[in-house]
Write a structure and sequence with these properties.
Layout (H helix, E strand, L loop, with lengths): L5 E8 L2 H9 L15 H10 L2 E8 L9 H22 L3 E6 L5 H14 L4 E5 L13 H9 L3 E5 L12 H20 L2 H4 L4 E4 L6 H11 L1 H10 L3 E4 L6 H8 L7 E2 L11 H12 L4 H15 L30 H6 L17 H6 L6 E4 L2 E4 L1 E2 L11 H21 L5 E6 L4 H13 L3 E6 L11 H10 L3 E3 L16 H12 L10 E3 L5 H4 L1 H4 L12 H11 L3 H8 L1 E2 L1
Parallel strand pairs: 1-2, 2-3, 3-4, 4-5, 5-6, 6-7, 7-8, 11-12, 12-13, 13-14, 14-15, 15-16
Antiparallel strand pairs: 9-10
Helix pairs in contact: 3-4, 8-9, 16-17
């Protein structure tokens, strides 16, 4: 089926003048990824090989604005003229998304008028952020008003966030997915989705974690979730780096297959990726009609102002996923919590009856146990006290010591009722080593719970990593603050970030037999497990390509991806 006709909605240009312009500014690669060679001949060769009838050309990250408005306007025009020249010469084979010099709104409006309205490009490409400014910024309203009046098409493509620059391959394999979702969320929370209802959006790479966000909003912000349901009909998602069964199942829990569009991400993704992506895409669908629509029909409908596409309505059936951990504060710590000035009204205190089969059934949960290390063990219980982490270091550590002691006592008293996970403050290496040792020496502590900060590297020191690996206990990664929805509360992304950093650093090798629980992550790691898992091989210090080849071609199972898919989550 891979020879079916296709339209390619994410097909990039990389003209020599643009590469030279970046090099003048000292940008010799993109987060460790070298510039691929590109020419219009290479585009046409790919199109012929894979029966791509039309490629919608666009510039990829980092875009055109690097601090100088005048230079950005000039560069945007050059890029758009490159696409227009190919469009004029090759006719219907070529379409294009215009680059705009945002955050210079005046210049963006002028270039939109020239390249899209006058010259006939198909829409615009916006970076997920430009130096920290996201598409839902209030200053962008004049541009969105104009695009709304024209029933415009806006392609949202990831860019590296300011705070993540220099993080190497963690960016293309994780952060770019996250930033695409941040751009999506900026349009939702700013009200742009309601104020400019005629704009149709295409989000690169399956929108990143959009479907996981939608499911989390159902629980944490029902009003915003309702608004999102009504907006869905205007949203389209491309398939580049988003074709595994896990990713597509997740995406299709949020949208319909008629809002999914084929893309190659060429030349940033090599032609060698195409057999893998098309085979994965086609394997997902029993009905051959659906891949053919994703390849061609859906894109045609998009650029024909959404004609012949049914409205998705306001119903959304997010898949239910049982929790794999619980919170239960020992009553003995009530005075300690009061002494810290923490409001105890929202705390879940330990109650034996909360862990009975009847209690779990009342909460519509299917099980009181969790499959940890291939055995069914009682539900893990871990600390969840967001206000604690704003306290002084000494107070945090003193409370954790008391918490672990009291939790261990409860676990001993109520043997088999729950699994006690001792808290570890990995932001304080000295204290963490003591806490790990204390937990190991306790017969009633069944696992360790880590609380990384999203505002710094998620990993502790190497000494702490070594002690964690020696403990040979299950490890839960828990946000310091678990309230609200993912992305809106970025702390809830810390477990996925932790796994990315653990693989990229190579320290994942120390945890070959460790079972991970990624708490409050909403399963974000699963949608990008094939991409994120590549960091297991493409490590910061050394790439392990021979090992990758062996796992891929001989074992037919990639280790990094397997680690992520085997991790428990909620």
């Amino acid at each position: 089926m891979s020879n079916l006709p296709k339209w390619d909605v994410q097909h990039h240009i990389l003209p020599d003048f643009y590469v030279q312009e970046l090099k003048k500014m000292g940008v010799s690669d993109i987060e460790g990824v070298r510039y691929p060679r590109w020419s219009i001949q290479s585009t046409l060769k790919l199109m012929k090989s894979w029966n791509i009838e039309r490629a919608i050309l666009s510039l990829s990250l980092p875009g055109v604005h690097f601090g100088d408005d005048v230079a950005a306007c000039r560069l945007a025009s050059q890029v758009n003229d490159e696409i227009l020249a190919h469009k004029k010469r090759l006719g219907s084979q070529i379409g294009g998304f215009a680059s705009l010099p945002l955050p210079n709104v005046k210049g963006a409006l002028a270039e939109y008028e020239r390249a899209v309205i006058t010259e006939g490009l198909d829409g615009v490409i916006l970076m997920s952020n430009v130096n920290g400014t996201y598409p839902g910024n209030e200053q962008y309203r004049p541009l969105f008003e104009r695009m709304n009046a024209d029933n415009g098409v806006v392609f949202i493509h990831p860019n590296t966030p300011v705070q993540s620059k220099g993080h190497g391959l963690i960016n293309p394999f994780y952060t770019w997915f996250l930033d695409t979702t941040k751009a999506f969320l900026s349009l939702l929370t700013s009200g742009f989705h309601q104020d400019y209802p005629n704009i149709r959006y295409v989000f690169a790479h399956g929108g990143g974690f959009v479907s996981r966000l939608a499911a989390d909003l159902e629980l944490s912000d029902p009003k915003l979730a309702e608004e999102l349901k009504l907006w869905r009909s205007q949203l389209f998602f491309d398939t580049a780096k988003f074709v595994t069964a896990e990713a597509l199942n997740s995406l299709l829990s949020f949208t319909s297959s008629n809002r999914v569009l084929f893309s190659s991400d060429f030349p940033w993704a090599s032609q060698n990726k195409m057999p893998y992506w098309t085979s994965k895409l086609e394997a997902k669908f029993a009905d051959p009609k659906e891949p053919s629509e994703i390849y061609l029909k859906n894109s045609k409908a998009l650029f024909d102002q959404g004609s012949n596409l049914p409205n998705l309505g306001d119903t959304l059936q997010s898949p239910k996923h049982d929790p794999v951990h619980a919170h239960a504060m020992p009553q003995a710590l009530a005075e300690e919590i009061s002494g810290l000035g923490i409001d105890a009204s929202g705390i879940q205190w330990f109650k034996k009856e909360s862990f009975t089969k009847e209690s779990f059934e009342k909460e519509s949960l299917s099980k009181t146990s969790v499959n940890i290390s291939s055995t069914n063990q009682p539900m893990p219980v871990a600390l969840d006290l967001p206000e604690l982490w704003a306290q002084e270091k000494e107070k945090i550590n003193r409370f954790i010591t008391k918490y672990n002691h009291e939790l261990s006592k409860l676990a001993g008293k109520h043997s088999g009722l729950f699994s006690a996970f001792g808290a570890v403050n990995i932001s304080d290496p000295e204290a963490a080593l003591t806490q790990i040792a204390d937990c190991i020496s306790s017969a009633n502590i069944s696992g360790l719970c880590l609380y990384p900060s999203i505002n710094e590297t998620a990993l502790p020191t190497h000494e702490v990593i070594l002690e964690l690996s020696k403990a040979q206990l299950p490890i839960m990664i828990h946000p310091q603050d678990s309230t609200g929805a993912i992305i809106l509360n970025e702390q809830k992304m810390v477990a996925t970030q932790f796994m990315a950093e653990l693989m990229y650093s190579g320290q994942i090798e120390l945890f070959k037999k460790t079972h991970f629980i990624l708490a409050h992550s909403a399963g974000t790691h699963r949608d990008i497990a094939d991409s994120l898992g590549m960091l297991y091989y493409l490590r910061k210090q050394k790439w392990h390509l021979v090992r990758f080849a062996y796992d891929y071609f001989i074992k037919r199972k990639l280790k990094g991806e397997s680690i992520l898919l085997e991790a428990q989550w909620d």
